[in-house]
Design goal:
heterodimer, A: Rossmann fold, Rossmann fold, five-stranded parallel beta sheet, four-stranded parallel beta sheet, B: mainly beta, Alpha-Beta Plaits, SH3 type barrels, five-stranded antiparallel beta sheet, three-stranded antiparallel beta sheet, 2 helices, globular
């Protein structure tokens, strides 16, 4: 797939080969992402970073990726600082930003925002998370981390645990996992189960996820344990959040029953779902995973904006 | 005295208007809703048949006849969302002047709102809601913006 001038809205727009191709490009970017080599392939380009929801890793890693390739960045970090606070539509905001930039990265609280932005923008739009919808670039860096650790993505056993209802990272990831024939186990409280239409979509793709209530029952066979935060901000009712907060906790006692080469991943931020004692074990991959955001996003920006490496 | 065979006439012919036939059984009241008929705007006779035997559908159907109103293409497209096999007959002076089957394209634009309140199409943006038809039986529509399946189609018709 030639990514030049293409939008990145949903991971479902990418085939298995497309994804492998992006991960291969990201591999080549690693020394540039670490600053061991330098090349300004995107010199003279401008990236618009619009973050209308809080972000640390995604925003900073997009900025870092752009700067590493010589691309300038203009950004907005709060909706209250834009004309959207005066009632301007996202469509109008995007048309204006599109005139200032060569590509736009958008994080927005409403599902489908990136799709709408792509419709109103002549330049490419990259979805950096739309409400509880999807987060395709997170999925790419998640897959990159798994492939680095395991050598291949095919046929791995993966357990997804936590907020599977509102967690956009697991929604995007689940769609991608089916392309690699992974065996998926889902562990979530009753009120935070994976949405039925995503399950239906996975089954259409030939994947039949298994649901378990207790994390202890889903650890022994897992190659990857993907933990997500139960997101207070997505709950319409705070009392509902309190009922499920702290349901699952990964600690060293739990990991005693895991395979030696199990990797623990988390899109971060974490609250208390992974005990700090896990950080120093061979299982912990979440900080490496966050660091991988830079080479993966470098690969995407370079391909979308036509850089040559 | 010889017995005459009993001929049941449930719905009488109309002089002018529209006959919507082969409606999926149970959807007649949703068709009435789509037609925008309520207590404030009834100016002509409307006949509604629910759970009527249908040779064409091989089971049961609903039927609606409205006098003096000819429905337009947009209304017929909305009817297709709740009754994909419906046929529309425009009647003029007791004769059918035009008869067609409702059609469902691959995409549905501007006929229903997304049932996800957090979908960007429900936030005052200048776009029409758009859905991809995933299946006709049962009717399944996926929002082209937020990717969610549309639930309660009849409650979300525009």
């Amino acid at each position: 797939m030639d990514l030049y001038h293409k939008d990145v809205v949903s991971i479902m727009d990418f085939s298995k080969d497309d994804i492998e191709g992006i991960l291969d490009m990201a591999e080549k970017m690693v020394p540039y992402a670490k600053g061991e080599k330098t090349k300004r392939t995107l010199d003279g380009k401008i990236l618009g970073n619009l973050f209308f929801e809080p972000s640390t890793r995604t925003k900073l890693s997009f900025e870092s990726a752009a700067y590493r390739l010589g691309c300038d960045v203009i950004d907005v970090s709060e909706m209250s600082m834009t004309s959207m606070a005066k009632g301007e539509t996202l469509a109008d905001t995007i048309k204006m930003v599109d005139a200032y930039c060569d590509a736009t990265v958008l994080r927005h609280p409403y599902e489908g925002a990136a799709k709408l932005a792509a419709k109103f923008s002549d330049h490419p739009v990259i979805n950096a998370g739309d409400g509880a919808g999807s987060h395709p670039t997170q999925t790419l860096l998640d897959l990159f981390t798994m492939r680095q650790a395991k050598g291949s993505l095919d046929g791995l056993n993966i357990t997804l645990v936590g907020d599977l209802k509102y967690g956009r990272t697991v929604h995007s990831l689940a769609h991608a996992l089916t392309k690699f024939g992974m065996n998926i186990t889902l562990v979530a409280p009753e009120s935070l189960q994976m949405p039925k239409d995503i399950i239906d979509h996975l089954e259409t793709g030939g994947c039949h996820p298994v649901s378990k209530t207790f994390l202890e029952d889903a650890i022994a066979d897992a190659d990857v344990l993907y933990v997500t935060r139960i997101q207070r901000e997505r709950f319409p009712d705070p009392a509902e959040y309190q009922k499920v907060a702290g349901t699952y906790r990964v600690d060293n006692a739990l990991l005693e029953n895991a395979k030696d080469d199990l990797i623990v991943m988390h899109p971060l931020p974490r609250v208390n779902e992974i005990a700090p004692e896990v950080d120093n074990t061979r299982h912990a991959k979440y900080f490496e995973q966050a660091a991988n955001g830079v080479p993966v996003r470098m690969a995407l920006l370079n391909a979308i904006l036509g850089g040559e490496l | 005295m010889a017995e005459n065979p009993v001929k049941e006439v449930r719905v009488t012919p109309i002089r002018n208007g529209t006959v919507i036939d082969h409606i999926t059984c149970g959807q007649a009241l949703n068709v009435i809703k789509i037609l925008g008929i309520n207590e404030n705007n009834i100016y002509s006779s409307i006949s509604v048949g629910i759970h009527v035997s249908s040779a064409a559908l091989g089971g049961w159907k609903d039927i609606v006849k409205i006098e003096d109103i000819e429905i337009d293409a947009k209304t017929a497209a909305k009817i297709a969302l709740v009754a994909p096999d419906a046929t529309i007959s425009i009647v003029r002076d007791y004769s059918v002047s035009n008869k067609y089957k409702v059609e469902l394209g691959e995409k549905i634009v501007g006929l229903a709102r997304c049932s996800n309140p957090n979908c960007i199409t429900n936030k005052g943006e200048p776009v029409e809601p758009e859905f991809k038809v995933i299946s006709k039986y049962p009717m399944q529509l996926r929002c082209c913006y937020c990717d969610r399946m549309l639930t309660n189609i009849s409650d979300n018709l525009l």
